[in-house]
Write a structure and sequence with these properties.
Chain lengths: 441, 52
């Protein structure tokens, strides 16, 4: 039925199977939309946020998807500015993943601001002393960059590419993509950093507070660094999942190997910086504010925050993936590669959780107890909404757009049979397909 | 916010924040304008017709 829209020389599942897959994800999407409507209609009382938790599950999800979407800007930086040519075979997918992550982040922020109709206030009545203003500016602009990077992929669809204007537009956009990629890298550096800067400047909350250079706390640089380091892990992780689900090899091993190696070294140096930062914070910064290191991890009944979370974030999900990815023999073993990128993804999500939610759980006054928080089902549903949206976006893009340039080469199909399928449309009770001209039908 | 808005103050904060925003928007806007105009001209010259 949709054969005319599917890229040439590749095989896709039957339309009924695709529709079933989309419907299953559509059900989760619908659940999220229902919760979203409740939040919009009834307000933030649908959440379990309170005076202690002004930031909650949504902001964690926001920071997590922004960090995971960092693969787009860093891969673009490596491809267009550093000149790593091999990465052109995975840049499309990195951009798609980034586009999904950033559109999700903006959607979640739309829920969280409580008064979406006043969302434009942050641009017009900007508080230029707030790191979050800078985040809003850069996030919106960078989403524009990702949209610009995604458009040429859409224009490469078989039917759209036949229109000369679209063909030329896609070609022209490719030609100056380095300019957009450079702008994206500039924007990403600042908004990733400012997201880290928010807990870092809160001197009233010594768990998050860090010293730094000029107006930027060390968390500013650690957040940018971690997004650039772990973002490619997420790109590889999703690529591997896609390959598993489609039962196809979509990207050559040398491309994955290069990205994994760069990611590994980035994580390696990031984690050294993170360990130094943690030691300095534990021994100098926190004591200067009247806290001992163990006060942040002990005597917290009802709370799950123990030393385990620090060990998990830095050791299990930081040092371990770094060591696997920088060791050629290990990262070339599929099991270890899967493990490393999975741990990397968990690690950066854990880091964002700690810097958003654990910061708020720790009491700062002597008469306070640890604050606990459990998200409402509406918060959970609206947080799963972007996941379902992402799966649908990837599925539709994979089916109709040439996302993986090496797919045809890696999965050759019987050309005569494919050509015959292009000429002979599938029988349909509704007659010829409406989008085809009579001659094509 | 623009310099003619009543809230505008000529200080480093406003210049850096809004300068960065306008810079990014200008690059994106000019880049896309260039691509669209060139695509219209190229299509007019018959470029890309071989895809029919």
């Amino acid at each position: 039925m949709d054969t005319a829209l599917i890229p040439k020389g590749v095989k896709r599942c039957p339309i009924w199977q695709f529709a079933l897959w989309i419907s299953a994800n559509g059900a989760v999407l619908a659940w999220g939309v229902f919760a979203m409507l409740l939040v919009y209609i009834k307000g933030l009382n649908q959440t379990n946020m309170n005076n202690a938790y002004g930031f909650a599950l949504w902001i964690w999800a926001d920071l997590a998807v922004i960090a995971l979407g960092g693969g787009a800007f860093f891969t673009g930086f490596l491809r267009y500015l550093v000149g790593k040519e091999e990465l052109k075979y995975i840049i499309n997918y990195a951009v798609l993943i980034g586009f999904i992550c950033y559109s999700s982040a903006l959607m979640i922020l739309g829920f969280d601001i409580g008064q979406p109709l006043r969302g434009w206030f942050i641009f017009w009545h900007a508080n230029v002393h707030s790191m979050l203003t800078e985040v809003a500016f850069c996030l919106t602009c960078y989403f524009g960059v990702l949209t610009i990077e995604y458009i040429p992929m859409v224009l490469e669809n078989r039917k759209l590419d036949k229109v000369p204007f679209f063909h030329n537009l896609g070609h022209n956009m490719h030609e100056i993509m380095a300019v957009f990629a450079a702008t994206g890298a500039f924007l990403s550096f600042f908004h990733q950093g400012s997201l880290g800067g928010v807990p870092g400047v809160m001197f009233g909350r010594p768990f998050g507070f860090r010293e730094g250079v000029l107006i930027w706390p060390w968390t500013f640089f650690l957040f940018t660094w971690s997004a650039a380091a772990f973002g490619p892990c997420f790109t590889i992780f999703i690529t591997k999942i896609t390959e598993t689900l489609t039962r196809k090899k979509l990207v050559k091993d040398n491309v994955i190997d290069l990205l994994a190696k760069i990611s590994g070294w980035m994580i390696f140096f990031y984690i050294i910086a993170k360990i130094i930062d943690t030691i300095y914070w534990a021994t100098v910064t926190a004591p200067s504010k009247g806290f001992t290191f163990l006060e942040f991890y002990t005597n917290n009944p009802g709370s799950a925050y123990g030393l385990w979370i620090l060990i998990a974030e830095i050791g299990v999900c930081g040092v371990l993936p770094a060591l696997i990815l920088i060791t050629p023999k290990l990262r070339r073993i599929q099991g270890f590669l899967w493990l490393a990128v999975f741990l990397g993804v968990i690690g950066v999500c854990l880091n964002r959780w700690v810097m958003v939610l654990q910061v708020l759980a720790v009491p700062v006054l002597t008469f306070e107890d640890w604050f606990t928080y459990l998200p409402s089902w509406q918060e959970v549903a609206t947080t799963l909404l972007p996941v379902a949206y992402g799966v649908i976006m990837i599925s539709v893009s994979y089916r109709y757009l040439p996302i993986f340039p090496q797919e045809r080469e890696l999965n050759p199909i019987d050309e005569p049979a494919a050509a015959a399928r292009e000429v002979i449309p599938e029988p349909s009770a509704a007659g010829p397909e409406p989008e085809l001209s009579p001659a094509e039908s | 916010m623009f310099p003619f808005s009543f809230e505008w103050i000529w200080d480093a904060g406003h210049l850096v924040f809004h300068g960065g925003l306008w810079y990014a928007l200008t690059v994106l806007g000019l880049g896309m304008t260039y691509c669209i105009i060139k695509a219209v001209l190229d299509a007019g010259k018959g470029k890309g017709d071989h895809h029919h």
